[in-house]
Specification:
The chain has about 450 residues and is an alpha+beta fold. It has helices at about 10, 15-25, 30-35, 50-60, 75-90, 130, 170-185, 205, 275-280, 310-325, 345-355, and strands at about 40-45, 65, 140-145, 160, 165, 190-195, 210-215, 220-230, 240-250, 265-275, 295, 300-305, 335-345, 360-365, 370, 375-385, 400-405, 415-420, 430-440, 445-450. It folds into 4 domains: about 5-100, Malonyl-Coenzyme A Acyl Carrier Protein, domain 2, CATH 3.40.366; about 130-250, Thiol Ester Dehydrase, Chain A (Roll); about 265-385, Thiol Ester Dehydrase, Chain A (Roll); about 395-450, no CATH class. It has a 12-stranded antiparallel beta sheet. A 4-stranded mixed beta sheet has the order 17-20-19-18, with no helix packed on it. A two-stranded parallel sheet has the order 1-2. Helix 7 (about 170-185) packs antiparallel against helix 10 (about 310-325).
Length: about 450
């Protein structure tokens, strides 16, 4: 049917005339293909994928064509359907896969066997490859981080808490935000969701060089920041490709709405020196000049953040340090590693970079950061483990390949398979046996966690 007849009864209804016309008339691919934009994803629902070669010739080369069936007898069509759904996921869409499975009826009988032990991850497949998908399907930026990195990236290497170096979460946030805004210069409000950082070996960056990549999918805004080793004759550290941070970034329509709280009542502690609070938590004094003092209220904490170098990093980092001060105590230092939602007012950020200070508020009860520039919701923190407590020598006999303690534990690096209270535990010393697999290198480990009560 030609385009001028698309609204006719012949085109809209499955009548005998409709099927007769389909059988006898020509197919107007050229007219229809004019309405399909570049970089589109075309799903062929016709049987046997007969039209795929014709559609490829008619559409733009950047168009992705996904077939759900195949006429070849050597191909399993169920597998073809699931692969088509998988291609939609890789291109940023979220099809409702529950529609192809029967509905579970609850309660499930007690004797139904579990299939969880059959499900394993294929570590031979590098997961970041599914996100890269070539430069035409994602925005991409790479730079060198390490002993040969440019000065503008040095703040990512100088971040230190106690003796431990780490890549700051604020640095990773500013990397993806700056890249996204450079591609969308007219953006007024930008949101980052489900942001998460991952542990990495800082020795790779301090003694060698890595290629750091920031990839953002054009559809959906899913992003990943990864590091991959470079061939360096001076560095003997072997760094495989690893994920530093993941999340989603997108434009938000309209201006950011922020409810600035009216906190007037301060506690007896009143105003606190920002740098002194951070030194107490073993933070390095470098980069703490943006905030002079913070106020402790009955409802939470507030601080005025000023710009010293015109970077978004300082603003975000000061907000995260404010959270660390609010949540840490004399025995432990915590840092944010997972943030469910962040919203940025880009117009106000530009004013901040030009020298205007920003007042931020952190409410520990609601777990929210509020200001006229940035909003953060549902922030999760983890311990930065500084003390080097040795496990009790009494229990060092045995085949344990991983020793730790409650304060120096990095159990986030281990996929725990078993954990239980040891028979050697006592009233004054808690001992827990565990076994699992290291997330980084997939080595199987087992050991104990020992914690001695202080007297």
């Amino acid at each position: 049917v030609e385009e001028k007849d698309w609204d006719s009864d012949l085109a809209k209804y499955a009548s005998p005339q409709y099927f007769t016309n389909n059988l006898l008339s020509s197919v107007y691919f050229e007219e229809g293909s004019r309405h399909i934009p570049k970089n589109a994803i075309v799903i062929e629902i016709s049987p046997h994928a007969l039209l795929a070669p014709i559609v490829r010739k008619s559409l733009d080369p950047d168009t992705d064509i996904i077939a759900l069936t195949n006429r070849s007898k050597s191909i399993n069509n169920i597998q073809c359907l699931l692969e088509g759904i998988g291609k939609l996921y890789l291109n940023g869409y979220e099809p409702n896969v529950n529609a192809i499975y029967p509905t579970n009826e609850y309660p499930i009988p007690a004797l139904v066997p579990s299939i969880s032990h059959f499900l394993t991850w294929d570590f031979s497949v590098q997961t970041i490859r599914g996100l890269e998908m070539g430069s035409r399907k994602c925005w991409y930026k790479t730079f060198v981080l390490g002993v040969c990195s440019k000065p503008k990236y040095q703040h990512l290497l100088d971040y230190k808490i106690g003796p431990k170096f780490l890549i700051p979460a604020a640095g990773l946030i500013s990397l993806v935000l700056d890249l996204f805004v450079s591609l969308n210069p007219a953006a007024k409000t930008v949101a980052i969701e489900n942001f998460r950082t991952y542990e990495c070996d800082m020795g790779v960056f301090l003694r060698g060089n890595c290629d750091v990549s920031v990839a953002i999918t054009r559809v959906g805004g899913t992003f990943a920041i990864s590091a991959e080793d470079m061939e360096d004759v001076w560095c003997t550290v072997n760094c495989k490709e690893r994920i530093l941070a993941t999340g989603e970034i997108k434009l938000v329509a309209g201006k950011m709405k922020s409810n600035i709280p009216d906190w007037t009542t301060e506690t007896l502690e009143g105003r606190l020196e920002f740098d002194a609070c951070l030194k107490k938590l073993a933070f390095s004094s470098r980069g703490n000049q943006c905030v002079q003092q913070l106020s402790k209220h009955l409802e939470g904490f507030s601080a005025d953040i000023s710009s010293t170098s015109g970077r978004t990093f300082e603003l975000v980092d000061s907000c995260l340090k404010l959270i660390s001060i609010a949540r840490s105590d004399d025995e432990r230092t915590v840092v944010p590693y997972c943030i469910q939602s962040m919203v940025f007012n880009m117009e106000m950020i530009r004013e901040y970079k030009q020298g205007q200070s920003v007042r931020v508020f952190y409410d520990p009860m609601d777990n929210e950061v509020t200001s006229s520039v940035i909003l953060m919701k549902t922030i999760r923190t983890k311990d930065i483990l500084l003390d080097k407590l040795e496990p009790s020598k009494e229990y060092t006999s045995g085949t344990s390949s991983y020793w730790t303690s409650m304060k120096t534990a990095k159990l986030d690096d281990i996929d725990i398979n078993y954990i239980g209270l040891s028979s050697q535990a006592s009233k004054d010393e808690t001992i827990v046996d565990f076994s699992g697999t290291m997330n980084t290198w997939r080595n199987r480990v087992m050991g104990i966690v020992s914690y001695v009560k202080s007297k």
